[in-house]
Design a protein that fits this description.
about 200 residues, mainly alpha, Helix Hairpins, minor pseudopilin epsh fold, 2 domains, three-stranded antiparallel beta sheet, binds manganese (II) ion
């Protein structure tokens, strides 16, 4: 098996001015690509070790595999979670209902999720996760290491590594997180919630 880097589902400048073309090019073509290559390199090392061609530090290689596969899967979701900026970009239908059921209201979800994203220490993500009964929870992750909640799958994530915003927002992560809501593709979240 081999991972592949899919093209973005929109043009590099589609998310501007919230996220610039320059960031999207670097983020997708360099950072995301590096996770895909890293995942494939780790898989290859494991295969060679099974064939007796090389000796490996299995703990280090599996940690590397986890970091890079998570990086790949999270970025793929992150791209699909976004679309061109829209004012008053609010969820409707099943997503709205699920957010209200789990968090009281859409506004209280956004407030707490934004706070989670802003408070990630160093590099990481804030994720919205769902179980098959459409119960929602939010989690924070450091770097790309899952703080897994058994039975829950990520359906929405925001990347708050500096590479995701620094060229546009410098050290003002809060401004990036606040503007990012304009990009959320609620139709994609609805599709993920239903699957
Ligand atoms: Mn990233």
């Amino acid at each position: 098996m081999k991972y592949e880097l899919a093209p973005l589902p929109y043009a590099y400048d589609a998310l501007a001015p919230v996220i610039s073309e320059e960031i999207m090019k670097l983020h997708h073509d360099k950072h995301h690509a590096a996770y895909v290559n890293g995942a494939n390199a780790a898989l290859e090392k494991l295969e060679k070790a099974r064939n007796g061609e090389v000796e490996i530090d299995i703990k280090a290689v599996l940690r590397d595999l986890s970091f890079n596969v998570n990086g790949h899967v999270l970025h793929q979701m992150f791209w699909e979670n976004m679309r061109a900026p829209q004012e008053n970009n609010v969820p409707t239908g099943a997503v709205k209902e699920a957010l209200e059921k789990s968090f009281g209201s859409v506004e209280s979800f956004q407030k707490q999720f934004g706070a989670a994203a802003k408070a990630v220490e160093g590099s990481g993500w804030a994720l919205l996760v769902a179980d098959t009964d459409k119960n929602l929870m939010m989690i924070q992750i450091e770097k790309q290491n899952f703080m897994h909640v058994a039975g829950f799958t990520p359906i929405l994530g925001i990347d708050v590594w500096e590479h995701a915003y620094y060229l546009d927002y410098k050290n003002d992560r809060g401004a990036y997180v606040d503007a990012w809501w304009k990009l959320v593709n609620w139709d994609d979240i609805e599709r993920r919630l239903a699957s």
